[in-house]
Amino acid sequence: MHDKILIVDDEAAARTALMLLLRREGFDVRDASDGRTAIAECASFRPDLILLDIVMPEMDGFEVCRHIKATPETRLTPVVLITGLTATEDRIMGINAGADDFLSKPIDLNELLARTRSLLRLKQYTDELENAEAVLLSLAYSIEARDPYTHGHCERLAEMSARMGEILGVPQEHIKALRRAGIVHDIGKVVVPDSILLKPGPLTSEEITVMKKHPVVGERICAPLKTFRLVLPIIRHHHEKHDGTGYPDGLHGDEIPLTARILQISDVYDALTTDRPYKVAFSPEVALDLMEEEAGRGWWDPELFEAFREMMRQRQNELAPENFRKTVN
Questions:
Q1: Architecture of the 147-323 domain
Q2: How much is the pLDDT for 72?
Q3: Least crowded by CB within 10 Å, which of 43, 141, 201, 223?
Protein backbone atom coordinates (compact mmCIF):
# COMPACT_ATOMS: atom_id res chain seq x y z
CA MET A 1 0.00 0.00 0.00
CA HIS A 2 1.47 3.34 -1.09
CA ASP A 3 1.68 6.36 1.19
CA LYS A 4 -0.82 9.03 0.17
CA ILE A 5 0.21 12.66 -0.31
CA LEU A 6 -2.03 15.65 -0.98
CA ILE A 7 -0.51 18.68 -2.73
CA VAL A 8 -2.33 21.98 -2.24
CA ASP A 9 -1.27 24.95 -4.40
CA ASP A 10 -3.16 27.44 -6.54
CA GLU A 11 -0.38 27.34 -9.17
CA ALA A 12 -1.01 24.47 -11.59
CA ALA A 13 2.63 24.27 -12.73
CA ALA A 14 3.89 23.88 -9.16
CA ARG A 15 1.34 21.14 -8.44
CA THR A 16 2.21 19.25 -11.63
CA ALA A 17 5.94 19.33 -10.93
CA LEU A 18 5.52 17.99 -7.40
CA MET A 19 3.05 15.34 -8.50
CA LEU A 20 5.40 14.02 -11.19
CA LEU A 21 8.31 13.84 -8.75
CA LEU A 22 6.38 12.14 -5.95
CA ARG A 23 4.60 9.67 -8.23
CA ARG A 24 7.97 8.71 -9.67
CA GLU A 25 9.04 7.88 -6.12
CA GLY A 26 6.04 5.54 -5.74
CA PHE A 27 3.65 7.75 -3.75
CA ASP A 28 -0.10 7.92 -4.32
CA VAL A 29 -0.64 11.62 -5.01
CA ARG A 30 -3.64 13.89 -5.40
CA ASP A 31 -3.81 17.65 -5.74
CA ALA A 32 -6.08 20.55 -4.86
CA SER A 33 -6.02 24.08 -6.23
CA ASP A 34 -7.62 25.83 -3.23
CA GLY A 35 -8.27 25.44 0.47
CA ARG A 36 -11.88 24.30 0.32
CA THR A 37 -11.07 21.58 -2.21
CA ALA A 38 -8.15 20.51 -0.02
CA ILE A 39 -10.42 20.08 3.02
CA ALA A 40 -12.83 17.99 0.95
CA GLU A 41 -9.95 15.84 -0.33
CA CYS A 42 -8.75 15.28 3.24
CA ALA A 43 -12.12 13.77 4.09
CA SER A 44 -12.29 11.49 1.04
CA PHE A 45 -8.63 10.73 0.23
CA ARG A 46 -7.35 10.57 3.85
CA PRO A 47 -3.77 11.55 2.99
CA ASP A 48 -0.79 10.50 5.09
CA LEU A 49 0.96 13.82 4.40
CA ILE A 50 -0.12 17.24 3.12
CA LEU A 51 2.13 19.66 1.22
CA LEU A 52 0.38 22.99 1.60
CA ASP A 53 1.18 26.31 -0.05
CA ILE A 54 0.64 29.32 2.22
CA VAL A 55 -0.23 32.05 -0.29
CA MET A 56 -3.58 31.14 -1.84
CA PRO A 57 -6.76 33.14 -2.53
CA GLU A 58 -9.79 32.96 -0.18
CA MET A 59 -8.45 30.42 2.37
CA ASP A 60 -4.69 30.77 2.82
CA GLY A 61 -2.47 27.93 3.99
CA PHE A 62 -2.59 29.02 7.63
CA GLU A 63 -6.39 28.78 7.72
CA VAL A 64 -6.41 25.42 5.94
CA CYS A 65 -3.78 24.08 8.35
CA ARG A 66 -5.78 25.23 11.37
CA HIS A 67 -8.87 23.48 10.00
CA ILE A 68 -6.94 20.24 9.38
CA LYS A 69 -5.47 20.25 12.88
CA ALA A 70 -8.84 21.05 14.49
CA THR A 71 -10.56 18.11 12.77
CA PRO A 72 -10.29 14.87 14.82
CA GLU A 73 -9.90 12.67 11.72
CA THR A 74 -6.93 14.67 10.36
CA ARG A 75 -5.38 16.34 13.42
CA LEU A 76 -2.43 13.92 13.42
CA THR A 77 -1.80 14.17 9.66
CA PRO A 78 1.58 15.88 9.08
CA VAL A 79 1.32 19.23 7.28
CA VAL A 80 4.31 20.81 5.51
CA LEU A 81 3.84 24.48 4.71
CA ILE A 82 5.48 25.53 1.44
CA THR A 83 6.20 29.21 1.07
CA GLY A 84 8.33 31.85 -0.52
CA LEU A 85 7.94 33.91 2.64
CA THR A 86 11.03 34.06 4.83
CA ALA A 87 9.94 36.38 7.64
CA THR A 88 10.17 34.84 11.11
CA GLU A 89 6.63 35.93 11.96
CA ASP A 90 5.27 33.85 9.05
CA ARG A 91 6.92 30.73 10.44
CA ILE A 92 5.58 31.54 13.89
CA MET A 93 2.10 31.83 12.37
CA GLY A 94 2.62 28.44 10.75
CA ILE A 95 3.70 26.86 14.04
CA ASN A 96 0.67 28.37 15.78
CA ALA A 97 -1.55 26.96 13.03
CA GLY A 98 -0.17 23.48 13.80
CA ALA A 99 2.28 22.97 10.92
CA ASP A 100 4.73 20.11 11.35
CA ASP A 101 7.45 21.37 8.99
CA PHE A 102 8.32 24.03 6.42
CA LEU A 103 9.80 24.11 2.93
CA SER A 104 10.96 27.28 1.24
CA LYS A 105 10.57 28.10 -2.45
CA PRO A 106 12.31 27.29 -4.70
CA ILE A 107 12.02 23.74 -3.37
CA ASP A 108 15.12 21.58 -3.18
CA LEU A 109 13.90 18.19 -4.38
CA ASN A 110 16.31 16.18 -2.22
CA GLU A 111 15.20 18.12 0.86
CA LEU A 112 11.55 17.58 -0.11
CA LEU A 113 11.99 13.81 -0.35
CA ALA A 114 13.99 13.61 2.88
CA ARG A 115 11.41 15.59 4.88
CA THR A 116 8.53 13.69 3.26
CA ARG A 117 9.94 10.29 4.18
CA SER A 118 10.77 11.41 7.71
CA LEU A 119 7.25 12.69 8.36
CA LEU A 120 5.66 9.61 6.80
CA ARG A 121 7.65 7.38 9.17
CA LEU A 122 6.34 9.49 12.06
CA LYS A 123 2.78 9.16 10.72
CA GLN A 124 3.19 5.36 10.58
CA TYR A 125 4.18 5.30 14.27
CA THR A 126 1.21 7.52 15.10
CA ASP A 127 -1.17 5.24 13.20
CA GLU A 128 0.15 2.20 15.07
CA LEU A 129 -0.39 4.02 18.36
CA GLU A 130 -3.92 5.02 17.41
CA ASN A 131 -4.66 1.43 16.36
CA ALA A 132 -3.47 0.17 19.76
CA GLU A 133 -5.68 2.72 21.53
CA ALA A 134 -8.61 1.75 19.33
CA VAL A 135 -8.16 -1.92 20.29
CA LEU A 136 -8.23 -1.03 24.00
CA LEU A 137 -11.32 1.14 23.59
CA SER A 138 -13.06 -1.63 21.64
CA LEU A 139 -12.20 -4.12 24.38
CA ALA A 140 -13.57 -1.73 27.02
CA TYR A 141 -16.84 -1.32 25.13
CA SER A 142 -17.15 -5.08 24.65
CA ILE A 143 -16.76 -5.59 28.40
CA GLU A 144 -19.43 -2.98 29.05
CA ALA A 145 -21.72 -4.77 26.58
CA ARG A 146 -21.50 -7.98 28.64
CA ASP A 147 -23.71 -6.31 31.24
CA PRO A 148 -26.95 -4.85 29.80
CA TYR A 149 -27.36 -2.80 32.98
CA THR A 150 -24.24 -0.75 32.27
CA HIS A 151 -25.14 0.36 28.74
CA GLY A 152 -23.79 3.88 28.22
CA HIS A 153 -21.95 3.84 31.57
CA CYS A 154 -18.52 4.48 30.03
CA GLU A 155 -19.65 7.48 27.99
CA ARG A 156 -21.50 9.01 30.94
CA LEU A 157 -18.52 8.50 33.20
CA ALA A 158 -16.13 10.05 30.68
CA GLU A 159 -18.39 13.10 30.28
CA MET A 160 -19.02 13.63 34.02
CA SER A 161 -15.39 13.15 35.00
CA ALA A 162 -14.06 15.50 32.33
CA ARG A 163 -16.61 18.16 33.26
CA MET A 164 -15.68 17.85 36.92
CA GLY A 165 -12.02 18.20 35.99
CA GLU A 166 -12.75 21.37 34.05
CA ILE A 167 -14.68 22.87 36.98
CA LEU A 168 -11.76 22.14 39.31
CA GLY A 169 -9.24 23.64 36.89
CA VAL A 170 -7.41 20.36 36.28
CA PRO A 171 -4.74 20.66 33.53
CA GLN A 172 -5.96 19.80 30.03
CA GLU A 173 -3.79 16.69 29.73
CA HIS A 174 -5.41 15.30 32.89
CA ILE A 175 -8.90 16.09 31.55
CA LYS A 176 -7.99 14.09 28.46
CA ALA A 177 -6.85 11.27 30.75
CA LEU A 178 -10.18 11.42 32.59
CA ARG A 179 -12.06 11.03 29.30
CA ARG A 180 -9.96 8.01 28.36
CA ALA A 181 -10.22 6.53 31.85
CA GLY A 182 -14.00 6.89 31.76
CA ILE A 183 -13.99 4.43 28.87
CA VAL A 184 -11.28 1.98 29.99
CA HIS A 185 -11.44 2.13 33.83
CA ASP A 186 -13.10 -1.31 34.07
CA ILE A 187 -11.15 -2.97 31.26
CA GLY A 188 -9.65 -5.34 33.85
CA LYS A 189 -13.08 -6.94 34.25
CA VAL A 190 -12.09 -9.04 31.25
CA VAL A 191 -10.85 -11.54 33.90
CA VAL A 192 -14.15 -11.51 35.85
CA PRO A 193 -16.55 -14.33 34.85
CA ASP A 194 -20.13 -13.45 33.92
CA SER A 195 -21.33 -15.53 36.87
CA ILE A 196 -19.75 -12.93 39.15
CA LEU A 197 -20.20 -9.83 37.01
CA LEU A 198 -23.92 -10.41 36.48
CA LYS A 199 -24.75 -12.01 39.83
CA PRO A 200 -28.04 -10.52 41.12
CA GLY A 201 -27.27 -11.18 44.80
CA PRO A 202 -24.37 -10.52 47.20
CA LEU A 203 -20.94 -11.83 46.23
CA THR A 204 -19.13 -14.42 48.29
CA SER A 205 -15.73 -13.56 49.78
CA GLU A 206 -14.04 -15.58 47.02
CA GLU A 207 -16.02 -13.74 44.34
CA ILE A 208 -15.15 -10.40 45.93
CA THR A 209 -11.46 -11.36 45.77
CA VAL A 210 -11.80 -12.04 42.02
CA MET A 211 -13.65 -8.75 41.46
CA LYS A 212 -11.01 -6.77 43.34
CA LYS A 213 -8.34 -7.90 40.88
CA HIS A 214 -9.76 -5.85 38.00
CA PRO A 215 -8.07 -2.47 38.72
CA VAL A 216 -4.60 -4.04 38.75
CA VAL A 217 -5.35 -6.15 35.68
CA GLY A 218 -6.70 -3.09 33.89
CA GLU A 219 -3.55 -1.11 34.69
CA ARG A 220 -1.40 -3.97 33.38
CA ILE A 221 -3.39 -4.19 30.13
CA CYS A 222 -3.01 -0.45 29.43
CA ALA A 223 0.56 -0.03 30.73
CA PRO A 224 2.37 -0.60 27.38
CA LEU A 225 0.79 2.56 25.92
CA LYS A 226 2.88 5.60 26.87
CA THR A 227 -0.04 7.86 25.94
CA PHE A 228 -1.96 6.25 28.84
CA ARG A 229 0.66 7.36 31.37
CA LEU A 230 -1.84 9.64 33.16
CA VAL A 231 -4.68 7.13 32.75
CA LEU A 232 -2.97 4.29 34.64
CA PRO A 233 -3.28 5.78 38.16
CA ILE A 234 -6.99 6.39 37.55
CA ILE A 235 -7.56 2.79 36.48
CA ARG A 236 -5.62 1.39 39.44
CA HIS A 237 -7.02 3.64 42.18
CA HIS A 238 -10.65 4.34 41.27
CA HIS A 239 -11.80 1.90 44.00
CA GLU A 240 -9.69 3.37 46.81
CA LYS A 241 -11.59 5.09 49.65
CA HIS A 242 -10.79 8.32 51.45
CA ASP A 243 -10.45 6.49 54.81
CA GLY A 244 -8.03 3.89 53.42
CA THR A 245 -10.49 0.99 53.32
CA GLY A 246 -10.59 0.72 49.52
CA TYR A 247 -8.54 -1.42 47.14
CA PRO A 248 -6.09 -2.46 45.72
CA ASP A 249 -3.53 -0.47 47.76
CA GLY A 250 -5.48 0.88 50.74
CA LEU A 251 -4.54 4.48 49.96
CA HIS A 252 -6.24 7.20 51.95
CA GLY A 253 -6.85 10.95 51.63
CA ASP A 254 -4.55 12.81 49.26
CA GLU A 255 -2.56 9.65 48.60
CA ILE A 256 -5.30 8.85 46.11
CA PRO A 257 -4.64 10.81 42.88
CA LEU A 258 -7.13 13.63 42.36
CA THR A 259 -8.11 12.29 38.93
CA ALA A 260 -8.90 8.88 40.48
CA ARG A 261 -11.05 10.57 43.15
CA ILE A 262 -12.91 12.50 40.44
CA LEU A 263 -13.68 9.40 38.40
CA GLN A 264 -14.54 7.46 41.57
CA ILE A 265 -17.27 9.91 42.62
CA SER A 266 -18.69 9.99 39.09
CA ASP A 267 -18.62 6.18 38.99
CA VAL A 268 -20.48 5.82 42.31
CA TYR A 269 -23.12 8.35 41.26
CA ASP A 270 -23.74 6.61 37.93
CA ALA A 271 -24.00 3.20 39.64
CA LEU A 272 -26.58 4.56 42.10
CA THR A 273 -28.70 6.28 39.45
CA THR A 274 -28.93 3.32 37.03
CA ASP A 275 -30.58 -0.09 37.34
CA ARG A 276 -28.20 -2.88 38.32
CA PRO A 277 -28.80 -6.63 38.79
CA TYR A 278 -28.89 -6.12 42.57
CA LYS A 279 -30.88 -2.82 42.76
CA VAL A 280 -33.20 -0.40 40.97
CA ALA A 281 -32.05 3.07 40.05
CA PHE A 282 -32.22 5.79 42.69
CA SER A 283 -33.26 9.33 41.81
CA PRO A 284 -30.42 11.88 41.61
CA GLU A 285 -31.54 13.46 44.89
CA VAL A 286 -31.58 10.14 46.76
CA ALA A 287 -28.26 9.07 45.22
CA LEU A 288 -26.56 12.29 46.31
CA ASP A 289 -28.01 12.00 49.81
CA LEU A 290 -26.63 8.46 50.07
CA MET A 291 -23.23 9.64 48.83
CA GLU A 292 -23.27 12.44 51.42
CA GLU A 293 -23.79 9.84 54.15
CA GLU A 294 -20.95 7.77 52.72
CA ALA A 295 -18.68 10.82 52.58
CA GLY A 296 -19.52 11.37 56.25
CA ARG A 297 -18.34 7.83 56.96
CA GLY A 298 -15.02 8.69 55.33
CA TRP A 299 -15.49 6.87 52.03
CA TRP A 300 -15.28 9.82 49.64
CA ASP A 301 -13.36 13.11 49.65
CA PRO A 302 -15.94 15.43 51.29
CA GLU A 303 -14.77 18.63 49.55
CA LEU A 304 -14.72 16.92 46.18
CA PHE A 305 -18.18 15.48 46.82
CA GLU A 306 -19.58 18.95 47.55
CA ALA A 307 -18.11 20.23 44.28
CA PHE A 308 -19.63 17.25 42.48
CA ARG A 309 -23.02 17.89 44.10
CA GLU A 310 -22.93 21.51 42.94
CA MET A 311 -22.02 20.38 39.42
CA MET A 312 -25.00 18.04 39.33
CA ARG A 313 -27.29 20.80 40.63
CA GLN A 314 -26.13 23.07 37.81
CA ARG A 315 -26.58 20.29 35.26
CA GLN A 316 -30.11 19.66 36.52
CA ASN A 317 -30.88 23.34 36.00
CA GLU A 318 -29.41 23.22 32.48
CA LEU A 319 -31.45 20.16 31.56
CA ALA A 320 -34.67 21.50 33.09
CA PRO A 321 -34.67 25.32 32.83
CA GLU A 322 -38.33 25.44 33.82
CA ASN A 323 -37.24 24.02 37.18
CA PHE A 324 -34.43 26.51 37.58
CA ARG A 325 -35.29 27.17 41.20
CA LYS A 326 -35.26 23.53 42.08
CA THR A 327 -32.00 22.52 43.73
CA VAL A 328 -30.57 19.30 45.05
CA ASN A 329 -30.74 19.62 48.83
A1: Orthogonal Bundle (1.10)
A2: 82
A3: 201
